[in-house]
Amino acid sequence: MFAPGPLKAFAIYRLILQSQNSFATYRPVAEATLFGVCLWGQRRRIVKNSFGVAALAVVTGTLALASAAHAQWTVTNLHPSGPTGSQAQASGGGQQAGYIVQGVGVNRAAVWSGTAGSFVNLHPAGALNSVAWGAGNGQQVGWTLLDGRGRASLWTGTAQSWVDLSPAGAATSTAYHASGGQQVGYAQFSSSTPSIAVLWTGSAASFVNLTPPMTGSARAYGTDGVQQVGFWTPQFSNRACLWSGTAASHVNLDPGLNTISTARAVHAGQQVGDVNIGGVPRASLWTGTAESWVNLDPAGSTRSQAYGVLNGQQVGSATVNGLERASLWTGTAASWVDLSTFLPAGFGRSTATGITSDGVNTIISGYGLNTVTNRVEALLWTRPNGPSCDSIDFNNDGSSFDPQDINAFLSVFSEGPCIPQGATCNDIDFNNDGSVFDPCDIESFLLLFSEGPCTLCG
User: Fold this and answer.
1) At residue 231, does pLDDT exceed 70?
2) Is residue 172 within 8 Å of residue 191, measured between CB atoms?
C-alpha cells in the first residue's frame, strides 16, 4: 500500500489535475502510473502494482510524444570537399575536433564549428601527421608527429596557434581532452618505461603527473576543468579511475569484476567509459565511486562504449543486430536512444564521440560510414535544449521502471521518508527547474516513467 504521505500527495495532485486543463493531456499517464502501471516501448506490459493486483494500461499519446521528442534530432554532415575521410572525435564549446584523411595513413587535425564549410585544417607546418582528439572552451588538443616524435598538442583554432605540450625528455605524448583551461593525456619517456597520466594547463612546463604510486602505466582521457578520468594499471590490467588534479586524489572506479575498465569522460560529477565483462566492453556510468557503477549496455547489444557526458546525458556506441550504432543514454540501459536512426539513407555503422551545448542546442559529434561514397564522414547531431530530468530510479536501488520508485518519489514529495527504509532518494526537483514541491515535478516523473519525453510541465 502507499504510505499516508504519498496518499496525501496523490490526493493533492488529483485536485491539481482536475483544476488545471493544461495537465489533462497526461492524466491517463499519471493516474495509471501512480498505481504501478507503465507503458514500455511499443509493448503492453503488466506490472504488479503496489496493491498486489496486476493491471494493464494502454496509455494513448505517449508513443507519439516520445517519437516527436526524438525526431527533434537533426544531422549535419561535416565532411569537407576533398579528403578521403573525416571523423569528429569530440565536441566542446560549440566546436568539433577531429581529423581529415588525405591518403593512407595521412591524417590532418581539424576543427569545425557546426558545418562542413567551417572546417579549419590545424596541421602544423613541418609535421608529418596530426590528429585532434578533444575540444573545449575554444581549445583543441591532440597529437602531432614532428621530427620523428609524437607530441601532445594544443591549438586555439588555427594551425599557427599550435603549442607543443610534450614534457621535456618525453619520447612520445598525446593530449586527449581539454576543458576549463586544463588538458589531459599521457607521456612516455622511453619505449621501455610505462606511460604516465598527465595534466597540463596550457604549456609543456605546466605538466602534472597524475599517476598513482605502484602503477604500471596510466593515461588520462577526459577532464571537465575540475576532475580528470582515465585508467591506471595497479597490477596487470587497466582500472578506471578519477582524479582531482593530483596523483594523491586518485579514486579507483573499477567495479571489482576482475576485468578491464576505462573512464573516458567526466562532467559535473558523472564519469563514463567502459567495463570489460567476459572479454566484451560495456558502456558504463559512475558518479564518483566504484560502487556507483551503472551498466549502460542496452538490451540486445553485443558490445558498447561511452565516450562523452553532459548534464546527465551520455553518448557512445552500441552494436545491435551486428551494426555499430551511435548512442545516447540518460543514466540507464533502458534509456538508450539509437542515434543512427536519424542518419540519411546510405549510412552504415556510426559512433557518437562527444556531447556539448551552445546554450541553445545539445550537440553530439561523431562519425559514420557512408556506403554511398564508401568513406567514413564526420557527423553532427543537433537538438534544441530542453529540460534535464533525473533518473526514474528515484531510490537508487538499481532498478528502473519499478513501482517502488513511484512510492519513494511521492513519499519524499510529501515530506515523508525515502522508500525502502535505508535507501538514498534523489531530491524532488525531478525536472531540475529549481522549483521544489512543484506539481510539475510529479508530471515530469510520471511521464518519463511511462517512457515519454522529459518536460518541464507536461
Assistant:
1) yes
2) no
